[in-house]
From TrEMBL:
NCBIfam families: eda, PRK05718.1. Gene3D superfamilies: Aldolase class I. Keywords: Carbohydrate metabolism, Lyase. Pathway: Carbohydrate acid metabolism; 2-dehydro-3-deoxy-D-gluconate degradation; D-glyceraldehyde 3-phosphate and pyruvate from 2-dehydro-3-deoxy-D-gluconate: step 2/2. It holds the Pfam family Aldolase. It catalyses: 2-dehydro-3-deoxy-6-phospho-D-gluconate = D-glyceraldehyde 3-phosphate + pyruvate. One of its GO terms (molecular function) is 2-dehydro-3-deoxy-phosphogluconate aldolase activity. Belongs to the KHG/KDPG aldolase family. It comes from Rhodopseudomonas julia. PROSITE patterns: ALDOLASE_KDPG_KHG_1. This is 2-dehydro-3-deoxy-phosphogluconate aldolase.
Length: 210
């Protein structure tokens, strides 16, 4: 599971975090992101349309791996498996979710924001973790100070990351990739401006590690 996650997250410096109100846009959006060089995306389970959006991309845009994000409850893991998602992401961790994840075939990226949380996740077998909410919790400087004591953990920081600060995170040895919603602005989705989104994706892909 760890290796699979490593491959999915390592494919690009930025994983787009998508909040979709309408499953109709899922396929053209995924195609636009892929045209810009993105092959792994996260669809958050914050909207009714989320699982339908995942299913459509799984069926119609095979070249893009979809993960489900904002997983808070055990039953969402079962639905994620059935939807064809390749991985799951959570803003944090909870005893119930961790127990359910032991029975889930998908690799997961649970969240941590303190050394104690990060250590508890390592004990549960998670060497890849989402660092959330990245900017508010202390940003790249905070994450940098975990390199020495907790060097074996690979983080995917998310929350408040944009093209200006993404490079600070990507330069750290404990960052696998960053996550962010900026690649798919609501207005661009509403307008069906796929060229704009393709451009944002290309720009993000070029934020190579220093
Ligand atoms: C997440 O769930 O990871 C965040 O909502 C994404 O954060 P951003 O919108 O600040 O990029």
């Amino acid at each position: 599971k760890t290796e699979e996650l490593e491959t999915l997250l390592g494919a690009q410096p930025v994983v787009p975090v998508l909040i979709l109100d309408d499953a109709e846009v899922a396929v053209p959006l995924a195609r636009a992101l892929h045209a810009g060089g993105i092959s792994t995306i996260e669809i958050t389970l914050r909207t009714e349309a989320a699982f339908e959006a995942v299913r459509r991309i799984v069926e119609e845009v095979e070249e893009v791996a979809v993960g489900v994000g904002t997983v808070l409850a055990p039953d969402q893991l079962e639905r994620a498996e059935r939807s064809g998602a390749r991985f799951w992401v959570s803003p944090g961790m909870s005893p119930q979710l961790l127990e359910a994840a032991r029975h889930c075939v998908l690799p997961g990226l649970p969240g941590s924001a303190t050394p104690s949380e990060a250590m508890a996740l390592v004990e549960a077998g998670y060497h890849h973790q989402k660092f959330f909410p990245a900017e508010a919790a202390g940003g790249a400087a905070y994450l940098k100070s975990l390199v020495s004591p907790l060097g074996e953990i690979r983080f995917c920081p998310t929350g408040g990351i944009n093209p200006t600060n993404a490079g600070d995170y990507l330069a750290l040895p404990n960052v696998a990739c960053v996550g962010g919603s900026w690649l798919a602005p609501k207005e661009a989705i509403a307008a069906g401006d796929w060229a704009k989104i393709e451009g944002l994706a290309r720009e993000a892909v070029n934020l190579r590690k220093a």
